[in-house]
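Schema walk-through. Below, the input block comes first and the output block second. Nothing else is stored per chain. Lengths vary across the set, and this one has 119 residues.
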Amino acid sequence: MREIDPVISAYEHLQEKPRQAEALQALQKVASLVKPIMRQRGWNVGILTEFYPSENNLLGLNWNAGEKICLRLRYPYDEKQFIPMEQVVDTMLHELSHIVHGPHNAQFHALWNQLREEH
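--- output ---
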């Protein structure tokens, strides 16, 4: 069933990784938890996608102010194990903050902390 007013246009998960159905569900769960915040601010994301970068400490990316947000769902040392949902949601809030503020400056951190409080 399609949403009437989606704030996220599409979801993509890594189909070659194990537990792919759970990965898609995780993306949809993250989205459901942040949609109220997004709607309140009029934010939209084109594609919310899973990624598995070679940089072990990279948890997320925001391309072009929300055109595409990439989230790491799996541990870098075990692609079968998922990162806890609250950590992934915090990464999503971080990436949403980049819709407004590109650099990791004081305004960015203030917004991220505000989103954390609202969540």
